[in-house]
Write a structure and sequence with these properties.
Elements lengths: L12 E7 L5 H12 L9 E7 L4 E7 L13 E2 L5 E9 L2 H8 L11 H12 L1 H5 L4 E9 L4 E6 L8 E5 L2 E5 L2 H5 L10 H10 L12 E3 L4 E5 L10 E2 L3 H10 L6 H18 L7 E4 L4 H13 L5 E7 L7 H11 L2 E7 L1 H7 L3 H4 L9 H12 L4 E3 L4 H5 L3 H14 L3 H13 L2 H11 L11 H11 L5 H9 L30 H27 L4 E3 L5 H7 L15 H8 L4 H4 L10 H6 L3 H7 L2 H7 L4 H12 L6 H17 L2
Parallel strand pairs: 13-14, 13-16, 14-15, 16-17
Antiparallel strand pairs: 1-3, 1-9, 2-3, 4-5, 5-6, 6-7, 7-11, 8-9, 8-10, 11-12
Helix pairs in contact: 2-3, 8-9, 8-22, 9-22, 13-20, 15-19, 16-18, 17-18, 18-19, 26-27, 27-28
Amino acid sequence: MGRAQAGFLIMCGLAGIFVSSRPSPAELEDWTRRMIQPIAHRGPDDSGTWSDPGAGVALGFRRLAIMDLSPNGHQPMASASGRFVMVFNGEVYNFGELRRELEPRGHRFRGHSDSEVILAAFEQWGIPAALGRFVGMFAIAVWDTARRELSLVRDRLGKKPLYVYREKGLITFGSELKTLVAGPSFDRSIDQAALASYLRYLYVAAPRTIYRHAIKVPAAHVLTLSDADLPLPAARPYWSLREAVRSGRERPFRGTDAEAVDELDALLTEATRCRMQADVPLGALLSGGIDSSTVVALMQKASARPVKTYTVGFAEQDFDESRHATRVAEYLGTDHTQVMLTGADARALIPRLPDIFDEPLANPSQLPTLLVSQLARRDVTVALCGDGGDEMFGGYNRYVYGTRMLPPMSRLPRCVRQSIGAGLGSVPAVAWDRLARWTGTVAPGFAAQRAGERVHKVGRLLSGGSVGEMYRSLLSAWPRPQDLVLSGDGGDVGEGILDEDPSADLLDRMMLADQTTYLPDDLLAKLDRASMAVSLEVRAPLLDQRVAEFSWRLPRALKLRDGVGKWILRQVLYRHLPREVVERPKMGFSVPIDDWLRGPLRSWGADMLSPDGLRRRGLLDPAPVARAWNALQQGQQAAGPALWAVIMFESWRARWAA
């Protein structure tokens, strides 16, 4: 059996193999090295492998050094007794407390490594019980030499990725799909149901992947493998988001508003403080919105020097938040840098996207996320961000509109709703935009920005048969992807959440659905791939599990109040920044994809969506794509996200499909 050393590693990449045959040590070594080579960007500082040919198991690792920059950071790593061998991508923030708990029980540590503590915790409590004690973000592969079992683990909210491929006699796993493709064998058959779901939501929801024979390990689950000849067993949860919701509702926060703000302030201060630990330069991604401004304010309060902050802006004013970020940075005194993203810049970045996003992902904000990550990486290796505030504290406009509109709308006869919806959709988007600019409003509660897009969403919403269907329509790029995919049902794991318990609070159902799928499989996947593509580690204090669990104890009025979301998070921010610096209509982190596809990306987009090409490749019906393209070019429909999804799939297929 190979030897593994201890060390402290964060934000890396892992891969491995479990086979029923007994390959030679050289074969295992070669396969593992080939699998970790495509993810060198996740760990440019070091690499390592370990194998046990007799058990048919091998682990590989790429290292991005953040703390303990010495050779002691080498992985794979063995526990003190040698029972467990592990590769670990991520960080356990409370490892110091766990170490102090383990030392009186006889565990000795060679360094200041969270990885050593993880392995000691496995030895002391067993893997499932130990995972329940960890606070952090991680993907872990650990081989138990005593039980001859391989356990594959993801953190509670799905911040770190972990993919698994299986065919009889072979299981491969890794941080990105490209590691599996590089393995000894891989079937590239596309899962057409996953494709339909992707076209609806712009991402593939776990446990599916775009490939028929590969899966994502779900967030907060352990997949334990003991025989590569058998089908993959069901992954087991070690923590449950639904249980966090149930527990929070059973013991709601009973204090005053001020006491709730005090507690959240303390939790966020600690969550931010522990994520500022690094032996390399550290900064923050600042949009100027409530979430990132809160994180930067808490960072600056804890820092003895100006925090380095980074922003991406747009020439299109409806999408540009850079002026707001600059205002926040000036007030807090950060060392601020910004860059503008134009359509020409987007065109230059696009050729990189299929390599970075080796599973189709069509959130257009992948472009500014990549650009701001590149910008930050010039100076820092670690950056904090504001991701999670909307999902944890009810910040999306759709939560406000949904709780107001969906219950009364659902009581109208469907034929009446469909008639109204058809009428709203029949007016071109540009006409609604002109009306909004003239009147300053479209309807009560609607912002004038991108009015046509918003009104068309309401038109689609009205055709839904249930509250769940109506809410999903707000999230759908292609409301009927089965009309586009020649075979595929477009289902996803989040669909039942909104309708399974109509008596539950609608806001809770919407937030739970988003935290289950949209957050891990879209936003966090986008952030992980874009940042790690440039070897930048990004940490999200608002997604600390303690913050998430506390958020589910809060009454609705502390999230939505007077038609505004994130009420309690705003109160925390107002302790550090004047209201007038941050108060403005919510914009969201989006890009002018419609304008770009009508302008600098038009020729390229037309080539990618060529009806002849789509027809020849045989998976998608070119007719609805052509109709959407024409409607976009004529200003009749805000079809940019839907068309971007097709373009990103076609770009991905040209790079990765068989």
